[in-house]
Amino acid sequence: MILIVLDAGHGGTDPGAVRHGLQEKDINRKVVDYVKEYLGKKVTILETRKGDETVAVINRRNIIAKSKADLAISFHCNSVKSDLAHGFETFRRFNHGRELQNFIHDRVYRFLQSHLITDRKKKVGDFIVLNTLVPSILVENLFISNRKESQLLGRDSFLQELGLVYANGILEFLKIPSGGANINPADYKEVNMKDIQGHWAEEEIKRVIAEGLMTGFSDGTFKPDEALTRGQLAAVLCKLLDRSK
Ligand SMILES: [Zn+2]
Description:
alpha/beta; binds zinc ion; Aminopeptidase; 6-stranded mixed beta sheet; 2 domains; 17% strand; two-stranded antiparallel sheet; globular
């Protein structure tokens, strides 16, 4: 049986970063809960903290080390004094966990890109929790200190999608069939235009519809090869501009 460790950063008397009315420990908890929900019984899950417990970092490290798990992920959100820093980054320790980092980082970032998040890239960090023989990474899911990103982190629907993307990345990494769960949460939303199947841009069309950037016609077609007018382009660009505010 495949065993993984999910480490929801902070907890109990340690809230982690606290900004814009959010506590990091709560966000990490929710993301891990969604990951668990989507993984279901496909893998055995060991958690370093249940609920809202206080668990010292060294104890988390010991739980991971003893587990001899197939992988471990430590979930965090970033925070700095300034409101300006933003984006997504992941850490491995030295060269350990590089394969896992490449795999998860790329998949999660592909999703975050649709929310116009910046990629702060794959990094190396000497975190205690990563100091084991278990392939492990620490992920920093956006900046709680950035107003725009804190708004996303405060939204359950966003955390749910994020959890799904992590769960699918974990399953893919472990080569476990996801059983119908898709890598792109946009696919979950019903997008059924009758004339896009097999089109070279099918995935992109599904994504812009699911993201609410473009719509099809009332007769259930998208007319993927029809020319776009300057007016239609302006409408799409306005939706993007509204979103990046
Ligand atoms: Zn943290």
